[in-house]
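Async update (no meeting this week)

Hi team, since we skipped the sync, here's where things stand on the single-chain job. The sequence we agreed to prioritize is pasted below, unchanged from the tracker. I ran it this morning and attached the output directly underneath so nobody has to dig for it. Comments welcome in thread, and please keep replies under the output.
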Amino acid sequence: MISSRTEFYAGLKAIAPILLGVVPFALITGIAAVEAKLPTGLAIASSIIIFAGASQLAATQLIRENGAFVVIILTVLIINLRFAMYSVSLAPHFKKLASSWKGLLAYLLTDQAYAVSIIRYNEIPQYPAKQWFYLGAAFGLWVTWQTGTIVGVLVGAQIPANWSLDFAIPLTFIAVTVPAIKTRRALIVAMVSVFIAVVAAGLPYNLGLIVAGLVGVFTGVILEAV
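Output:
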């Protein structure tokens, strides 16, 4: 029988390689908050509350540019729309859990935790303690993200600019995407998404990634229907 502890550590193990790319991403987010003139306490608190790197970066960029409050909120909502798609995909696996469990797992939802968990669930469709695998992966990422963000807020100004930490952001998403490409349909969806992401790279506030994700979803739906 699979125990909750075994699954928790399995989730930690699955997410561990990805965390190397998450650290510089978190540092960049912390540095961006400082550059936006956010107070130290608010910068750290916002990372804990929002816990969504792409939208945090977009929000701090808008704040730095004195963007309107409504624009900031709408931008964050648009960027985070992908989590609704993730939630729909994960819902069947967690439907029997208590509301408290669902609330915790929803708060911890990220691209990386979703990716490693859904791969696991597709490989082993039916087994107990599924939530513990997800929790292990999500908790490992949460601790890494918050630690990296705090370090970025506190000592970000001392990090040399020539380190090019932003290069780690696409590497992080590549690391969670490639293992999921196991069929011809998945490969086509990935190629279409990458093409759109490159074409839409010039869109502000990382919206190109969102457009690419939506196009990828529609491509998958069309291929499923054919």
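Quick observations from my side:
The chain has eleven helices and no strands.
Residues 24 and 149 are 9 Å apart (CA to CA).
Reply here if anything looks off.
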